[in-house]
Design goal:
Blueprint (H helix, E strand, L loop, with lengths): L2 H15 L38 H9 L4 H12 L5 H8 L7 H19 L2
Helix pairs in contact: 2-3, 2-4, 4-5
């Protein structure tokens, strides 16, 4: 989905709902901050959009908490592109109050590994 396509979806959602305040959730939320030509393809390739937009670090940390490979790939793509910061993401792990401690630990370990991979480039 391109940023223009997302804008069209949001205009339609606002028109249908009568509410101009639409929030985008899911991986397409990154298009609220960056155009697709600024992003790695994995970050915008999805064809679906869910109305609702969160801050990019909150988006990534919530996706990582799901521990799915596709979400790790999404996070890796944004990290590699320099669009999100590992240190900020590590701070956000502590805010995952509703996520079980083992999941928080797994996210922290993944981010620490990502930090090492980024530093070694």
């Amino acid at each position: 989905m391109t940023r223009a396509q997302l804008a069209h979806v949001l205009r339609a959602a606002a028109s249908i709902s009568g509410d101009p305040n639409i929030l985008v959730v899911g991986s397409q939320a990154i298009l609220g901050s960056h155009a697709e030509d600024e992003l790695p393809e994995l970050a915008w390739i999805s064809i679906e959009a869910r109305a609702r937009c969160v801050e990019k670090h909150d988006l990534v940390i919530s996706k990582l908490a799901a521990l799915r490979e596709k979400d790790k790939e999404f996070a890796r793509a944004l990290l590699d592109a320099g669009l999100v910061d590992v240190a900020t993401l590590l701070e956000r792990v502590d805010l995952l109050n509703c996520v079980p401690k083992p999941t928080q630990h797994a996210v922290r370990m993944w981010l620490e590994g990502a930090s090492r991979r980024t530093t070694n480039r």
